[in-house]
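Protocol step 4 of 5: obtain the predicted structure for the target chain.
Materials: sequence only (see below). No template structures provided, no constraints applied. The aim of this step is simply to have a reference model before the mutagenesis design in step 5. Sequence pasted as it appears in the construct record:
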Amino acid sequence: MNTTQMMAVLKQSTIFGSLEESFLDTLIFLAYPETFAADGVIYTRGEPSDGRFGMILSGRVQVLKKSGEVVCDITPGEVIGEIALSETHHKRTMTVKAAEPTEILIWNVEHIKEQIPGVWKRLLKLAWTHLSDYSEYIDE
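Step 4 output (structure tokens):
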């Protein structure tokens, strides 16, 4: 995906869409794209987050219960991996896999905190919302 296409997805994102274009440029500069084949595991429950989170650029991913049952689908413009950034032990709370070929922009949260501090607050708010949404599935 080229920079123009990445910018379009960022602008449509709930968490990033209202940022000034210069901040969106910084997000693209700080990110690296990663591609996953269908059924490719993006995050595994219990693994360290390593300070990384991402946003779906294309494709679709699924959040899975411990049993493997699908909790929800996540589509382009949505953020993944933010809960582990705010969780005490910085471990992934759910397994996330690509439901189809998927491209994700990946960031290191420390770089985001340094360059665009306001985004960290948005990520924390999103993490708490998602944690509330997924809390009944985390121990299953």
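Step 4 remarks: The radius of gyration is 14 Å. The chain has a mean pLDDT of 87.
Proceed to step 5.
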